[in-house]
Amino acid sequence: MNDERAEVFFDALRMELPEYINELEKEALRNEVPVIRRATRDLLRYLLRVHRPRRILEVGTAIGYSALFMKECLPPDARIVTIEKVEMRLREAEKNLGRYDKSGQIRLVKGDACDVLKEMAERQERFDFIFMDAAKGQYLHFLPYIMEVLELGGILVSDNILHDCDILESRYAVTRRDRTIHGRMREYLYRITHMDELETICLSLGDGTAVSYKTEERHEAEKT
Ligand code: SAH
Ligand code: MG
After folding, report:
1. pLDDT at 165
2. What is the mean pLDDT of residues 84-105?
3. Does residue 73's CB lie within 6 angstroms of at least one atom of ligand 1?
4. Most ligand 1 atoms within 8 A of CB, residue of 38, 61, 129 to mutate
5. Which residues is 58 bridged to in the sheet?
6. Helices (H) and strands (E) in the chain, counts
7. How many CB atoms lie within 10 A of CB 153?
8. I need a surface site. Which of 61, 90, 116, 197 has the fewest CB within 10 A?
9. String of DSSP letters for 138-189
10. 134 CA → ligand 2 middle, Å
């Protein structure tokens, strides 16, 4: 299938968004910030509108683009917590959230997601929707904490499951590091697709996206 033609075709069908979202997207692309693709945006919007979560967690804020996009898909009483560790990105995110999240639906947490998630798990915080969009090589380390803070019936969306490395990062990446990321991502995907507590579908949409639903443990007969 010609993905590019489909992309243009689908673009014409997309719903109107506040103008600032498209401005932020342009700014991100200009500065090589690896923000979500349009198709990923569509998927997030669909899941948020159908599942209607109230407590959303995002791992990997960058400049706040996807967090603000998700906010636009949610009712005013929904809350988003988003984690970022890079100082330069945090400054941009703070600026953008200050400007476009006037009602304060989004809370930016500074720090390494590994530490932040661990603390959240210890405090028994719970989320009904998690968007995983940070360093691909770390998803595997985050997973135990993610499973703790994800509620039963909650959804986990994992972005960038197909690409070994973002173009932006590959410049600095050495082959050995690439291999490590590959291995860890493969292991992550194996885990989320074989875990009893998750029902997962892997999609080649965008940069590759997995959607997982946290279920009760299934009976033997239901397992495939
Ligand atoms: N979700 C954003 C894009 C995120 S890009 C959007 O679509 O708009 C991935 C971000 O995750 C980067 O800004 C990177 O600094 C951050 N990140 C990577 N590893 C992290 C970690 N361990 N803890 C916190 N942030 C991390
Ligand atoms: Mg991404």
Report:
1. 45
2. 98
3. no
4. 61
5. 82, 131
6. 9, 7
7. 12
8. 197
9. GHHHHHHHHHHHEEEEEEEEEE--S-SS-HHHHTT--HHHHHHHHHHHHHHH
10. 7
CB 120 within 8 A of CB 144: no
Contact 53, 28 (CB under 8 A): no
Neighbours of ion ligand 2 (CB under 5 A): 133, 159-160
Q: Residue 164 CB: number of other CB atoms within 10 A? A: 15
The secondary structure of residue 134, as a DSSP letter, is S
Pairing of strands 127-132, 106-110: unpaired
176 contact partners, CB below 8 Å, separation of at least 6? none
Helix, strand, or coil (residue 193): helix
pTM across the whole model = 0.92
* SS percent in the chain: helix, strand, coil, step 5: 50, 20, 30
Least confident of 12-21, 42-51, 122-131: 12-21
CB 67 within 8 A of CB 58: yes
Rg for the chain, CA atoms, rounded: 17
